[in-house]
Amino acid sequence: MELKQYLSPDDINTWHRMVGQATNIVVLGHAGPDGDAMGAILALTHWLHKQGKQAVAMTPNPCPDFLSWLPGFSDVVFAKMARYKAQRLLNEADLLILLDFNAISRLEDLAPSVEACCAPRIMIDHHLNPEHCAELIVSDSAAAATCEVLFCMMHQLGAYDDIDTDIAECLYCGLMTDTGAFAYNSNRPELFHIISMLLDKGIDKDQIYRNVFYSYTEGRLRLMGYLLYEKMQYYAEEHTAVFSLTKEEMKRFNYVRGDAEGFVNLPLQIKGTRLSISLREDTEKALIRVSLRSIGSFRCDQMAEQFFNGGGHHNAAGGTLPNPMSEALKVVDQAIAASREQLINIES
Question: Which domain, by its residues, includes 316?
Fold first, then answer.
């Protein structure tokens, strides 16, 4: 089966020139990095090391604890925890590679330092409408994950033999997490052809699943029950579920980073539900994190852009709102009201 050829002959020349001339490469993932961001930056960093390059993976802040098993995790620079080291690495960089985000603003507090960095940039992503902020942009919004785009690039560049088990584990993690363990956005045969090629590299996909989904805290399980029983509001006519989580509630359940991961998907298990919205107070900033998930034709990305200062994909999107939570919930009500006719009449 043929894989996508993302690079034109000119793109291939540009890639080889930019990477070939670089001595100090910083591989960047977005703020609040998920499995796809972490998998992509670590897979690419491992590959660059194989080419004899000095490369370091960096994100603005730490990822959830359930991703700490990823090969190379201990070497990732989380700028929030190592501010001076991150700034030094950016000052010394002669190439930045941006993975799994389409705009510099997705780096949040790290964005000004990256904007000020004079190094050339390469962007590899799968979100809509990439910002023109790099000399080489490889983006495909139809891809299941940035890790899919990266794998296809590596394959096209003749690097499949360079993919070892560590790289394959990182890539598979990105594919698995960005599709909800292949529950959505994963119907294309090409995706499973890629998975078979990663299996040939010796990965244990069952163990990777357990590493990600069977490594939560007791507090997370109790928090899940609390949110579903006490906090979830269900709009039956609109086929929509909404729940919110405050810092006080997180403290009550001994919340650790990543404990709320995936909660927004749970209400979609209710028969007929087409939209789920979660709101969570940020533990570090005075804002509300909004996540949206949908099934079928409802466009999460459009709602996120219109009401929540965000964006994303057709069935998965996010954004932010200012505190307090009471005002954020009013915006959610407005968003649901604006889409009420569509939600009521939506097809399965």
Answer: 218-345
Alpha carbon 91 to its chain centroid, in Å, reads: 26
Backbone angles phi, psi at 85, to 5 degrees: -65, -45
- Whether 2 is in a domain gets the answer no
Q: Do 121 and 171 belong to one domain?
A: yes
Instruction: Report if residue 285 sits inside a domain.
Output: yes
Other Cβ atoms closer than 10 A to 190: 15
- Return per-residue pLDDT of the chain as tens, 348 residues: 899 999 999 999 999 999 999 999 999 999 999 999 999 999 999 999 999 999 999 999 999 999 999 999 999 999 999 999 999 999 999 999 999 999 999 999 999 999 999 999 999 999 989 999 999 999 999 999 999 999 999 999 999 999 999 999 999 999 999 999 998 889 999 999 999 999 999 999 999 999 999 998 999 999 999 999 999 999 999 999 999 999 999 999 999 988 999 999 999 999 999 999 999 999 888 999 999 999 999 999 999 999 999 998 899 999 999 989 999 999 999 999 999 999 998 765
Structural domains counted in the chain:
2
pTM (two decimals): 0.92
Q: Are residues 151 and 32 in the same domain?
A: yes
**Is residue 132 within 8 Å of residue 103, measured between CB atoms?**
no
